[in-house]
Amino acid sequence: MKLSTVLLGTLIMLVGYALLCVQRQGETLAMMSGVVERCAVLGGASDKLSHATIKNDNGAYLIAKLQACKPDTEVVILVQRGALYFNTVYAAQAR
Q1: pTM of the predicted model, to two decimals?
Q2: Rounded to an integer, what distance in angstroms lies between the CA atom of residue 53 and that of residue 37?
């Protein structure tokens, strides 16, 4: 097998993966509910993000971004596909 054939095949696979990542980014995979346990602000001076530690209905804890974070607030947790297709991002919205 020639090196050029291998490189061409690899390039085609990378382009396919990139297209898959771009098309599916932000896709909602599941929804669940939970209660905010505590709030924190993460990031530097210019890019602060409000995050919440949430206990879901199964009793598991997760960290999700939440704009107006207040403890003991009931939220809906969106499980979304991340930028690299296989990673998962959690976003919460107040009910």
Answers
A1: 0.67
A2: 6
